[in-house]
Specification:
- With 277 residues, the chain is an alpha+beta fold.
- It has 7 helices and 15 strands.
- The strands form 2 sheets. Strands 7, 8, 9, 10, 11, 12, 13, 14 and 15 form a 9-stranded mixed sheet that branches. It has a 6-stranded antiparallel sheet with strand order 2-1-6-5-3-4.
- Helix 6 packs across helix 7.
- 37% of the residues are buried.
Length: 277
Amino acid sequence: MEFKYFSKNGEVRPTAEATVPLSSVEYSYGFGVYETIRVVNSVPYFLSDHIERLRGSAEEIKLEHPFTAEFVSRAISELIAENEAETCNLKILLIGGRTAQNATLYILCLNPLFPDKKLYRDGASCITVKYERTLPHAKTLNMLGSYLAYRTAQQAGAYDALLIDSHGCITEGTRTNFFCIKDKTLCSPKECDILLGVTRKAVLNVAAEGGFEIVERDIKMEDLSSYEGAFITSTSTKIMPLHSIDAHTFGPQPHALKELMAAFDAFIGTCGGEMAA
């Protein structure tokens, strides 16, 4: 679908006018933060959580701006209505300036890319890349390291690259959160080292309601054999089971993981875009 309009500082404009000045040092140097929001039936999913993370990311890098949560929410609603967008991904770009008043808020609609359904049945493959994101709690425009890691994964025929920190621990994917599972225990890398994904938050809520235990711990490649399976989460991916990580191959998908995937799909189908069903 072609989306004819975007939003700049709350004003809906034709997409043909969507430009960033070449003289913008802030954009060139990646002084900005972003969010991607799933829209289903014209409803932006987990909107307040995404806007709150946008605010937190901006605060983390000391990006001052005048845009309130209410302002961003209203701009999103107006853009969805103008584009008559039923299903899409919303991209929010908040780019800093020399002062708060010079910050710019761009919002645009993009056609979503859905993973092959076979991956949910058979599991996806990931490779690992040694890389640590600066300021892991901030979703910034400084994505070169993640971009290169993801490109390496694509060239290897993998779904994503999992990032390995200086201690040899798996932290997260280039655009996904990572979990291991054993019985009904979910093991997550330590939250201080990762981006706190909105879909990750929703998955943890569903898991807790389903009687799963959630544990934070270091996870290294040599630890993978002690788990029954692993999966990644993101806005577009939801819960994606993993078949392999580098040379390590997991066995058949554990029953508990299938149970969690079914529960999360049911939640997404009935929650109406709110984190609390």
